Amino acid sequence: MPLTRTHRRAGAAALAATLVAALAAPGVPAYAANPIVTNIYTADPAPLVVGNTMYIYAGRDEAATGVNNFVMREWRVFSSTDAANWTDHGARANIGTFPWAGADAWASEVEERNGRYYWYTSVNGNGPGWMNIGVAVGDSPLGPFTDAKGGPLISDSTPNSSGLNIDPTVFTDDDGQAYIYWGGYWGPRAAKLKSNMIELDGAVVTPTGLTNFWEAPWMFKRNGLYYMIYAANDTNGCVTNSNYACQRYATATNPLGPWTHRGVVLDQVSSTTNHAGVVQFNGQWYMVYHNANAPGGGNFRRSVAVDRLYFNADGTMQKVVQTTTGPPPNPGGPGQPPAGTNLAPSATASTSHVSAWESLAAVNNGGVPANSQDRGNLAYGNWPQQGTQWIEYTWPSARSVNRVATYWFDDNQGIDLPASCQVQYWNGSSYVAVPGQSACGVAGNTYNVTTFTTVSTTRLRLSITSRPGLSTGVLEWMAFQS
Ligand code: FUB
């Protein structure tokens, strides 16, 4: 079983010793929180969603302390069903996967097509030049993977290739056309891929508009708009020292550009390199990136981290807030309302604040949300308020209550899942926490049930504390006596 956050809080120290010993083996749970793995060093993460699972494909940094070079020989896979708790599946490809290669298992990305999984890798071939793009293929997200081509897909002998042929990102458009972008040393390149996914289709082009591109492109599409994030290392709003990098991004209305630069989406991280991927999972957007934050970490001993990514209403992206906690668990799925008689519809709702364009009526109108972004039955939000806000039920006479269920609203913009919450009741003179309450859950896309010792009250309150810089919202708040 993957570790939960509760486990982590309760027994992180005890678990550490066990995990350090156990994690060499595949299929072993990895730490949650950021970095997501701390028993080994991992870098260049590439997310992929398959069904209800998010995979992260990453390189492994094996440089000893004080070694100022990449020592990278294998690519590993991690998976999660909630973007918070991760399982390490071990190395699923390595330099030996490519008989023509000899070193440097650098950044990679996996793309699915017709049930096959194509793993595009940066690797040092034994031929002329330095880095190449190879491609392995497997029949499942975990492989086994074998060399798909018998030689590089892209090398220094590919006409118009990059000054450094690394960091492939492969994107398949709605019409089935796949594209590969790659490059380093300020040299982004792009090409179409044939439907066999292992041959370029036509000429390599030099995309325009990727301002200050350095390396590490990642392409995705949202609402019909193409996005490219990429590492830049300019000191013009990106980094304080050009040994480091940030993630800039650009958008386009055509998959081959031209691109329009939009700004910085991830600031400098604690490692000099900055490599990220973006993915939508269970209705929410995530950025997966690396830093040097694991104990003993450094520029060649990096670690993968995951955080939420938010879009503004105009499609621009907010800067990712780099956290040590990682995102809250997001198990997804519509969920079913808890059984029992819901006392909420018979109450009058009130709140500390409701946004003008949202509705407090949402919380007790009996709606059944499909997910945390579902506005179909109204949504309550308290934007632009931050910190602690509340919603409250008042009944004309006392009710006995010992359980609530909360379905949070998350608009992927200013309203997010809260940092914490507490159930309170009016004891005749003030609001106090209901006695014996279980954890007040903050997961999205589900009913968070909190139980407590029965109270008899006319007023029940849900106190909600936001995550930094964000507001909170509720789609449904149910109250029961079991
Ligand atoms: O991990 C080796 C190289 O460092 C990657 O290919 C680059 O993107 C940078 O992260």
UniProtKB/TrEMBL annotation:
<feature type="site" description="Important for catalytic activity, responsible for pKa modulation of the active site Glu and correct orientation of both the proton donor and substrate">
    <location>
        <position position="167"/>
    </location>
</feature>
<keyword id="KW-0378">Hydrolase</keyword>
<keyword id="KW-0858">Xylan degradation</keyword>
<feature type="active site" description="Proton acceptor">
    <location>
        <position position="44"/>
    </location>
</feature>
<dbReference type="InterPro" id="IPR006710">
    <property type="entry name" value="Glyco_hydro_43"/>
</dbReference>
<protein>
    <submittedName>
        <fullName>Glycosyl hydrolase family 43</fullName>
    </submittedName>
</protein>
<keyword id="KW-0732">Signal</keyword>
<feature type="signal peptide">
    <location>
        <begin position="1"/>
        <end position="32"/>
    </location>
</feature>
<keyword id="KW-0624">Polysaccharide degradation</keyword>
<feature type="compositionally biased region" description="Pro residues">
    <location>
        <begin position="326"/>
        <end position="337"/>
    </location>
</feature>
<keyword id="KW-0326">Glycosidase</keyword>
<dbReference type="GO" id="GO:0045493">
    <property type="term" value="P:xylan catabolic process"/>
</dbReference>
<keyword id="KW-0119">Carbohydrate metabolism</keyword>
<comment type="similarity">
    <text>Belongs to the glycosyl hydrolase 43 family.</text>
</comment>
<dbReference type="InterPro" id="IPR023296">
    <property type="entry name" value="Glyco_hydro_beta-prop_sf"/>
</dbReference>
<feature type="active site" description="Proton donor">
    <location>
        <position position="215"/>
    </location>
</feature>
<feature type="region of interest" description="Disordered">
    <location>
        <begin position="321"/>
        <end position="348"/>
    </location>
</feature>
<dbReference type="Pfam" id="PF04616">
    <property type="entry name" value="Glyco_hydro_43"/>
</dbReference>
<dbReference type="InterPro" id="IPR052176">
    <property type="entry name" value="Glycosyl_Hydrlase_43_Enz"/>
</dbReference>
<dbReference type="GO" id="GO:0004553">
    <property type="term" value="F:hydrolase activity, hydrolyzing O-glycosyl compounds"/>
</dbReference>
